[in-house]
Amino acid sequence: xxxxxxxxxxxxxxxxxLNEIGKPTRRQDILGHVTGRSPYFDDHLFDGLLHIRCVRSxxxxxxxxxxxxxxxxxxxxxxxxxxxxxxxxxxxxxxSLLDFGIDDEPLLAETKVAYKGExxxxxxxxxxxxxxxxxxxxxxxxDVRPHVLDVEEAIKxxxxxxxxVYPANKFIYHGKYDHQKLRYGDVEAAFARADQIVEGRxxxxxxEQAPIETCGAIAAPETNDRYVCYTSTQALFFSLGTAxxxxxxxxxxxxxxxxxxxxxxxxxxxxxxxxxxxxxxMLTGRPCKFAWDREEEMxxxxxxxxxxxxxxxxxxxxxxxxxxxxxxxxxxxxYTRLSSYAIIKGVGHLPGPYTIPNVYADVYCVxxxxxxxxxxxxxxxxxxxxxxxxxxxxxxxxxxxxxxDLRILNAYRDGDMKAHRREAxxxxxxxxxxxxxxxxxxxxxxxxxxxxxxxxxxxxxARLPAHTAVDQxxxxxxxxxxxxxxxxxxxGRPAQPIQMPGFTMPAAxxxxxxxxxxxxxxxxxxxxxxxxxxxxxxxxxxxxDRPRQGAMRFSSISGLRRR
Amino acid sequence: xxxxxxxxxxxxxxxxxxxxxxxxMAGGTLVMRxxxxxxxxxxxxxSSDPVLADIRxxxxxxxxxxxxxxxxxxxxxxLAFLAxxxxxxxGPQIRNMGTVGGNLFAPHPYGDFAVALLALGARVxxxxxxxxxxxxxxxxxxxGRVGIVASVHVPRPQAPGDFGFLKVSRIKPKGxxxxxxxxxxxxxxxxxxxxxxxxxxxxxxxxxxxxxxxxLDGQAxxxxxxxxxxxxxxxxxxPPTDALATAWYRREVAGVHLKRLLERMVRG
Amino acid sequence: xxRTPIVFMLNGSERASFADPGQNLLEFLxxxxxxxxxxxxxxxxxxxxxxxxxxxxxxxxxxxxAESVAGKHVQTAAGLxxxxxxxxxxxxxxxxxxxxxxxxxxxxxxxxxALLDRNPTPTREDVVEAxxxxxxxxxxxxxxxxxxxxxxKGRARA
Lengths: 563, 268, 158
Hints:
Chain A is of the alpha+beta class. Chain A has helices at about 30-35, 70-75, 130-135, 150-155, 185-195, 235-245, 275-285, 295-300, 340-350, 380-400, 405-410, 430-440, 445-450, 555-560, and strands at about 50-55, 60-70, 80-85, 110-115, 120-125, 140-145, 180-185, 195-205, 215-220, 225-230, 255, 290, 305-315, 320-335, 360-365, 500, 505.
């Protein structure tokens, strides 16, 4: 592979006597790859291995009246059939391990299913073929409910409630808003002063990561009352924490082995195979394998979620963008998984690599009856970048500029203030644009050719806006999100679950088996900017000092990372 | 779940061993998918009858044993007119396994080889059947209850340029059909006589485009004729919607690809 | 369920094991015989991760009935190296960064070897065609194509 180094750029920021950068380096694991000896999770042989396969919902949305496993249990080779009540703690959300979000997803659904392919039972049998045959004999009495597959339909009044934990089909941010906000300057005032308004709507379908190795895990009893688990996970400690939580078992009883992954691309970050494989090993005393086939990988493997974006720009005749407003909808599918966090990342990235003095965003994490979404390369960024760059072309077209000139004109430069209130450093968009134009044979304006990321940034462009318009739009009350919404750990959390008319949230750590949440809607969310005052700060007298469960700080979320 | 695998020395014995609980397997590329997914019948019946591997040339055509693989056809000296079709099926491994007989039973969107055979007017010999071989179109219509295919008789195009085949897929060089189209246009004195055109992935099975054939018959293969043929390309077809394309899209592009194929045949 | 005893040649040495009715060659090789180099990717014949050669022809072990290899020669990626000496294709894959996650690599190597065995001087198009039945999600194929061409060149020089 040929790489080209443009040493004329940023020459004083780099040593030229580098030993590794710029030279291909042999992977440390490649000898195993070319000899076929790299140990993927399934490359471990166990005598007496049992195979697990799931009974899955054929419906997008249905209540479960009854699950009849009697016939399946008597099929040849079947050792055991698991249902939700066999899971010690059958409710989870991955980011609860980072103290971010409420448990909302069962390992095996008990009362309802919210997406096609959601598992409701698991057959453990001597062979995979026997497990498949028995899966076909589990009888589920379904009460099929109306479903919703579109983000904007899902948040309309009267839409089917996808996930009872979030009855308005919207994730609750920071314990108080039904969307993630970004407010920087005053977009409405800037729109009024702009020469042109350019609006656009952009959307992206879910994308399956499609690793060649499907997701799976093998678990087996070890000595000393431990279980070994070989897994395809991309995130070994996420998987370990999730298994320990769902199985109510200290993690030092779980011996996780991973690290050799047959492609992940984000799709193996919120892996849920290990708990079922380990549960099988616990209940049968034998090694158990739970792995998806290709059809499951494509149907229920969590994809990059769908996104829809509305962008409105205020633009001056010379091409300067003076205001940019986003309304975004992430399709989380039936459960939260990683979508709420993807939005935090995405909003931190707005308005893209451009210096725009007024930026506004409302971004909603919406529940629909689609396959739950998760991470994929460029997680949280890719969809909105597609929208932003498509919109930049539209702006260029509107003002009659070459799209590369427009980008260079608006590009951020070293020292500029970004909308998330951090100074831009090590910027290089201008230089990238210049090289792209050169390669593509596109002539640039003299000012674009002369521009540099190192010059003309900072100063006025480093100032925070004199005035930022704020609002309480989308305020939700009566939600206890657990500890994540309050910085500083235990402070600010009531000792008892908050009781709201028609809406009860269990405290995340207080009950091993939370009650089924009521399907009613939360207290009416305020929808205008001025009519509802901000909620009062939490009364310190009412706060308990119970320690938070699993409260580690994840710096990318809180934005406290040192640069 | 598979309970037994039986291999019979002759097709006649295999035919007798069949039943509602059995599936006949040749190359395995279709049957083993179902076996792996746990949706196949309970008995697999196979046959080692040498007739399955036979390729016999006759005056007007060639009789190809149902067990002949795509790779064998692609490499066969006397089957050059079918080589591009065989090469369009699957990747190298699938072509080493997949057979002529099996391709007749391939569900949508597979079965590109059968599309070419349909356009060529192939006839099918069914094991144990007395009398003349059956037209392929009939066999395709009844493929759930046709019996074991022993061989296919394929008329050979009189001139190499009389036959053309085009497969449209999203991934190159190997991909599943958005659609495929084959045309056999014998010419007498510059006029098409007995046109046969067939589409794949434009219905539940390979289908003949009879409206196109009517437009082409008796005409010279020139631009106005090609344009008229393209206009009626989807008449009588029933394209499905699947992960590769919607029915609407297939209808929109069928005429375009038919036109491209016919123009390529003009250029020779 | 009656199991079938199967005797066959695996990478040059005789092996025997029992197959379940309807068991595919991939599962038979992996769990029955213990050769873990062919990989499961789809069970449908679309990914090529399970590619092996049977009597010199590349086939998909997930779509091959285990008992059909009785008496035949099967080659897998585990048999490419001669002891500690790697096959030129394995060297070329290492030199050219032709593997990232490595999961498709055993199947790729077998498809590449089958190509070079029958065509020692392939063109780039020949290589692309030869690996068209093997999906790689990491590399974008270019390093793999380069590796196979490099191996062919090295062999031509030798």
